[in-house]
Amino acid sequence: MAGTFAERLNTELKERKRSGRWLAETMGINKMTVVRWRQGLHEPRQANIRAVAAALGVAVSALVDEAEAEAGSPEATPAAPPPPSSAEPKEEEAAVLVKRIAALNFQPTLHSLQQVVPDLMQVLTDAQEYARRHGE
Q1: For the segment 97-106, what is each residue's pLDDT rounded down to a tens digit?
Q2: 15, 16, 36, 121: most buried by Cβ count inside 10 Å?
Q3: pTM for this structure?
Q4: Sequence spans of domains, the chain
Q5: Which residue has better confidence, 19 or 109?
Q6: Nearest-5° Cα angle at 120, 57 to 71
Q7: Where does residue 94 rank: exposed (0-12), middle (13-18), buried (19+ CB within 10 A)?
Q8: Residue 60's closest CA among 42, 77, 76, 72?
Q9: Which is more confidently placed, 30 or 77?
């Protein structure tokens, strides 16, 4: 499949009758990040490419060429939402972690497990950091 990440993302969303807002909510990221990806203004980092693929239920290769998938994007947008301000309740941060886990869209196959494990490990690392910051 030829095309840029933006073209491929838009095609996959259209085929699944999903919106950019749905993708942002599913991944627990800012909707403007998805808008920039869809417009081709930014390329996501490898972890986000895998999370997008998992949310859409497609292989990473449906969104980027294998060489790109392995290399990642040097001028990428952040892989995770910025940490909340101290005024933001910690429940909201926990909700973001839950959404990120749900975005992994786990399907019990070897192929999906190979795609999901790196993302799950990142979410678990973020959850441990969250617990450390909040003394839990």
Answers
A1: 666 666 665 5
A2: 36
A3: 0.52
A4: 5-133
A5: 19
A6: 75
A7: middle
A8: 72
A9: 30
3-state secondary structure the chain: CCCCHHHHHHHHHHHCCCCHHHHHHHHCCCHHHHHHHHHCCCEECHHHHHHHHHHHCCCHHHCCCHHHHHHCCCCEECCCCCCCCCCCCHHHHHHHHHHHHHHCCCCCCHHHHHHHHHHHHHHHHHHHHHHHHCCC
- What does the radius of gyration of the chain's CA atoms come to, in whole angstroms? 15
- Which structure tokens are listed for 119? 């993302």
Task: Express each pLDDT in 22-65 by its tens digit.
Answer: 998 888 888 899 999 999 998 898 888 988 998 898 989 899 98
Spatial CB neighbours of 82, under 8 Å, sequence gap ≥ 6: none
